[in-house]
Amino acid sequence: MNDPKHPELHVNEEPSNDFIDTALGFGVFFGVLLLIAVAATVVSLMIK
Model pTM? Predict the structure, then answer.
């Protein structure tokens, strides 16, 4: 059983929580888009 394709032999070195990873990704992406939107609004109000 030295075949590396066997899932039983695969050692998960870093156990991860997929839900937390996904939620964190959405949160960070939302934050970046919110920052861009606020910056664009401030710039458009300064131009007027």
Answer: 0.65
Residues 6+ apart with CB under 8 A from 9: 1, 3
Determine which helix (DSSP H) or strand (DSSP E) holds 3, and give its type and residue range. none
Using CA atoms, how far apart are residues 11 and 14, in angstroms rounded to an integer? 9
| 14-21 LR contacts (CB < 8 Å, sep 24+) | none
Asked if 9 and 1 count as a contact pair (C-beta separation under 8 A), the reply is yes
- Kindly report, residue by residue over 17-29, the tens digit of the pLDDT: 889 999 999 999 9
